[in-house]
Amino acid sequence: MSEDRDEVRELAARARAGEVGAFEALYQMHQAGIYTFIRSQVREAELAADLTQDTFVRAWESLPRLRKVGAFRGWLYQIARNLVRDEVKSGRARLEMLASAVVSEQGAELPEPAAEGERPEDLVVSEEVKGEIWRALESLPAEQREAVVMHHMEGMGMKEIAEVMRVRPGTVMSRLARAREALRKRLSEYVEGSDEGM
Predict the structure, then answer these.
(1) Of the candidates 56, 61, 48, the residue with the CA atom closest to the CA atom of residue 18
(2) Taking CA atoms, which of 92, 144, 172, 173 is between 20 and 30 Å from 102?
(3) What angle is formed at CA 139 by the lines to CA 166 and CA 172, rounded to 5 degrees?
(4) Distances in whole angstroms, Cα of residue 197 to Cα of each of 105, 106, 138
């Protein structure tokens, strides 16, 4: 893990000095994660792809002003987050979460894709659950929703999320706790064992 951070730090330093190949390597390392983060908030795949490209264009243009090359990943997510917010404010995008985020510590996740031979009524239930998870996630305040996506979908730690959101790690923990509680209440009938420990 520290080797990855060291590699990113070195590539970011070289890219900041104007080395295009180093920036291309950073793009290859982070493009999928940035796309996933944006796609989790923007319904249209094409728009998410455009915003992903815009994120890297803006990063390249702003790279000479990056003070801490070791914070490159968090800085990149800040750019993506700001672009999504600008897009939403402009009214051209509708926030919608991908329903693959973990909604409780007790393992309430989206059902797996239907297996061959599965009954049609099972598919209806799966779609119902997916739809309810989408609605539940969309009902969260933006800050809570972003924290859920970064933590549960992107696997980012509290400190890194705090840097992206420009808040303290304790604030991130608080937002995640409130989001989980709201999701548990809204999705209680879909969460196994919701009567115990919810």
Answers:
(1) 61
(2) 92
(3) 25
(4) 10, 9, 24
Instruction: Kindly state the greatest CA–CA separation across the chain.
Output: 58
Number of residues that this document lists for the chain: 198
What is the distance between the alpha carbons of residues 81 and 147, in angstroms, rounded to a whole number? 11
User: For the whole model, what pTM was predicted?
Assistant: 0.63
Give the integer Cα–Cα distance in Å for 36 and 134.
Answer: 16
The encoded tokens of residue 58 equal 């803006």
pLDDT in tens, 56-98: 999 999 999 888 888 898 999 999 999 998 887 775 544 444 3
- For 8, residues 6+ apart whose C-beta sits below 8 A from its C-beta are 26, 29, 70, 72, 73
And the tokens for 136? 């539940």
Q: Are 109 and 190 in contact (CB under 8 A)?
A: no
Alpha-carbon torsion (4, 148, 110, 131), positive or negative: negative
Q: Which domains does the chain have, with CATH numbers?
A: 2-89 (1.10.1740.10), 98-193 (1.10.10.10)
